[in-house]
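Model: Ready when you are.
Researcher: Fold this.
Model:
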Amino acid sequence: MNAWTGLMLLVTVERLAELLVARRNSAWSRARGGREYGRGHYPAMVTLHTGLLLGCVAEPWALGRPFLPVLGWPMLALAVAAQVLRWWCIITLGPRWNTRVVVVEGLPLVTSGPYRWLRHPNYLAVVVEGFALPLVHTAWATALCFTVLNLVLLSVRVRCEETALVGDRTVPMPGIAR
């Protein structure tokens, strides 16, 4: 359990690093006239992702969920792969990546990195991590709750991003895969 708690602390530190990058990138975008979309759903997103981390810690401790190697190791590999994909997205988008939807009009659509194949690869990382990370330590209730709520939230978020990008005439629509 101590190793699990340590891993969750590392994931929390990683999330805080993402927020710092997002804050810096938000300032970059706003300095270039960036416009934010979807402020209304952002608090729900923060709450849901915070709940994921808390559930990952609380469920195994409170309910005595065991580490099952046959499940835990493959789920850890998926969670790490999701982190790699997320940071590939962050690096590819550079100062345009954000936890908020901020669009700087006139910038061309990014079509390199994972965006060559997927329109929203960061959300693939979120979906995979959302079920894999809790299942590393058999927190199946957290995995289930997060996955269901996240799919609802992502339906709002992706629509918000598509609306924001369509408003910027540099983005060809429709098109899901790149």
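Researcher: Now this one.
Model:
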Amino acid sequence: MAFGIPVGVAKGIKGNYDARRAFGLSCSPRQAAIAWKRIDYLWNLLSCQKA
């Protein structure tokens, strides 16, 4: 629960395996931002080497 709102996908519901798996494999915006900054850093590093 976050701020009184349930977070995630309920367990024990028949046929809910795919939804629970997709939720578990997803990433938060904060995690995506870290990955994006890393990609941007590596891209800039590569472009500096070409110059």
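Researcher: Key takeaway?
Model: The CA atoms of residues 17 and 39 lie 32 Å apart.
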